[in-house]
Sequence to fold (66 residues):
Amino acid sequence: MTSDPADLTAADHLDAAREMAAANRPFLAHLLAEEAARRTTDPATAAGIRAAFPAPAPAPSREETD
Fold:
């Protein structure tokens, strides 16, 4: 593993996205997959990555009650 984040590849980000998905961290998985897709030169591959790690639904907002 490299110590410089700029040296990470699309494959590195995709591996990390899979790890975060397995750890039930869908938002982090989505962010890492987005970075993997951004670093991918093939548009079809990037679309496939994005489809595999969609953005999670926002958490319901909480209302404070008296």
In short: Residues 10-22 form the longest helix (13 residues). The chain has a mean pLDDT of 91.
